[in-house]
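Subject: complex prediction, re-run

Hi both,

The earlier run crashed halfway through, so I resubmitted it with identical inputs.
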Amino acid sequence: MVTKKITSLEVAKLAGVSQSAVSRVFTPGASASKKTEEKVRKAATELDYRPNVLARSLITGRSRIIGLVVAHLDNYFYPEALELISNSLQKKGYHVLVFMASKTAGSIDDVVDEILDYQVDGIILASVAISSNLASRCNARGVPVILFNRSQDDDRFSAITSDNILGGQKVARLLIAGGHKRIAYIAGWEGASTQRDREAGFVEELKQHGMSLHAREVGNFIQDEARQAARKMFTANEIPDAVFVASDDMSFAVMDVIRFELGLKIPEQVSVVGYDDVPVSSWPAYDLTTVRQPANRMVAETISMILECIENKKTKPRQIKIDGPLIMRGSTRISTKLSK
Amino acid sequence: MVTKKITSLEVAKLAGVSQSAVSRVFTPGASASKKTEEKVRKAATELDYRPNVLARSLITGRSRIIGLVVAHLDNYFYPEALELISNSLQKKGYHVLVFMASKTAGSIDDVVDEILDYQVDGIILASVAISSNLASRCNARGVPVILFNRSQDDDRFSAITSDNILGGQKVARLLIAGGHKRIAYIAGWEGASTQRDREAGFVEELKQHGMSLHAREVGNFIQDEARQAARKMFTANEIPDAVFVASDDMSFAVMDVIRFELGLKIPEQVSVVGYDDVPVSSWPAYDLTTVRQPANRMVAETISMILECIENKKTKPRQIKIDGPLIMRGSTRISTKLSK
DNA sequence: TATTATTTTGCATACGCTTGCAAATACTTT
DNA sequence: AAAGTATTTGCAAGCGTATGCAAAATAATA
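This time it finished cleanly. Structure:
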């Protein structure tokens, strides 16, 4: 029952070579003769030896670990992204150390400190902000930081987002073309760049057409608050005939209130548009018109960018916006004809 | 721009003490006088020093990393579990290294090998099986393995599940009490213990009441396949008046087919029961009767068990089943009165 | 075959930290 | 104040690996 650790030294002994030889066999770039390689591999499998990644990291200074900070796993966009990120990195020989930035945990700064302790090669912040103090700390250590689905007015790190401004504009155009007259908006958390950009594009485009928001509430990207917002908005005097909700997740809650609590018809009486295009949106029970955030492309950019930063320390941070299509479904009227 | 690494040695120099003193200040169990502690802390903050977890692990043999293998992140039960697991472990000073066992990656065995390379202190397999060969490898290294939401006929590792047999029984009783006569089942992946147990309990209880399955299809825990199954099942000659679906996730797909493709009423014409109680189930658009898997309690047990195994190597593996309540909602008839 | 160019190999060191041990210091006790 | 006890401290070794350097082995060339 004694757990004996197998080290490269033991393999070396068994194979009749030096420890360095073993190391070289298991180090991608290193050179070893066919003969020794064979001997070493044989001994290694016999002893069930595998190199200790931690010890290796200590020398190379590379851990092949990427820290991922994530919140809002309840919004399905993030599990999806997490899966894509983890898979892509796995293929490149990296692995993901997950850190939850949820309510329960301390501040993001503490979390990032813990991440740095693990000597991660890079950090991905999914929908999470970071203090500029911390940013410089990461910078000082040469650890690249990438924002995923969030941007920040700080050119020290790269950010990958969908084109939220453009997305907002598209929604506005759609609703205007559909002949809606009383267009409302339910906002996400106002500290989020995604929220700000979506609203900015939306409102701007309305303005271009001589319109403005008929109503506005804040849902903070939380379903409960979105429900409250919807109740307030749709029990007012003149209710909206269309509402753009800052995320699909909130949209579902809003639709439920509209249909099941207030008995209104979607889209005959109210059109609803969301943002994200999570899988549930396409389910017939919701059939939600929405702007797709192309998770796979966003992740692909994120990965290639972070790897680039790791390989080449002097890569300059970039901000990338990825255009996502408007997905037309049944939750919005498209003709101006109103059902009476 | 040169990235200078701060080591305990530099802190020691600045503080005017030995390197070991610095180490002791940052090692929980170690002793240091008030005076040195003060000096060291001051120097440390000045230099922005934090201990290198990897180097520490090399010595202590403890990485404070838990490997988590997870598939099916598209079933919302798992993101939820992941969040709980990560949070709980974070509080205990551990962190989660995530490995996806999805379609794209190789076999689980390869994945677990990669995990072991990181010298993890333990492994949690969420809804994933493991070969017995690999099991012994983990055992040999003294790395505890815990199955989450899956059990296996191998007493070498612990398994935490909900009481799926009992859950299946509860569903059967409910449907029988509701006066259903043609009771059907849509199965998950038949390799999964969860699937087998749910069905076993369900069928057994029907049998106790002199009934048997009116129809049965397999959905493999995949929505698309569940849809196919539902189409087949509900276009047959005599359609079921109740269907138990092995997971909520599949249930939604089934309900969509029943209502939107076939135009049947739930629960008037067909009662539907799911399993898991993911958040969507409570949304009014589905309002699904289901058996709750108490994720928080399951996670709590998982964590306490894995930590126990880590602290005390000779802890015997245990299989734990956690009872989960039947959550009555609107997708099932409760009276025997049939709507005509 | 002798000579040079090339590859392979082992030695020794370093990565940043913890920890047993013995020396040094601080605190008690009579 | 001296002896004894408890606590703190520095030294040095080692965790498992990668890698520069020089020596040894091999291949290539004349």
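The longest strand of chain B covers residues 65-70.

- K.
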